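SEQUENCE AND FOLD
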Amino acid sequence: MSAAAVASVLLLAQVASAAPYAGAQYAGTITTSVNSGSAYVGQPVTLSNVTSEDGSVRGARMYGTVTRVVKAGQGKTASLQMTFTKLVLSSGTTYAIDGVVTGMQAQTKSNALKEAGGAVAGMIVGNIIGKTIFHTSMGGLLGAAGGYLVAKNNRENVTVPSGSAVRVTLRTVRQQSRHY
C-alpha cells in the first residue's frame, strides 16, 4: 500500500470517528451574553470552539435558540433553557441535532445587600408598629425577620456571559450535508 493510500485511509478513519452520535457530549463557548431578564424564546445562540468529550471533534460551531425563559421576580427563580439544532464541523459537514444544555457557567448577582436592606427596613417598620400597637420594642425583631424574607424571596436574573463554557448532550443526530 502506498503512502498516499495509507494517508487516505487514516483520513477517512478520522472523519468517521468525528461523526456525532446520540448521547455524545460537547463543550463550547457561547458567543453572546444571554440574560433571563432580557432573553426571549427564539433568541438565537451560538457556541464556538465546540469540542467533543472524546476529542474527535474540535473547532466546530453549534447553533440553537433560547427555548424557555423565566424572569426573576418576587417568589420566582430565574431560569434559562437553550436547545441546539445544528452542528457544523470544521470540515463543513453539517448535522441536524437535538442538543440540550447539561451544564453552563451562569452568574447571578449576590442578594446580600438587598437582604440586609430588607432586614433594616423591616426592623424600622416593625419597630414603629410594635411601639404603636403593642407598646413594646419586639416589633423591630419581627419586622427585621419579615423584611429579610421579602428581600430573600426577591430573586435575581441569571446571566450566561459571552465567553462562558456550555456543555451540550446530543439527543438525536442526522447528517445534512457533506463538503469535501
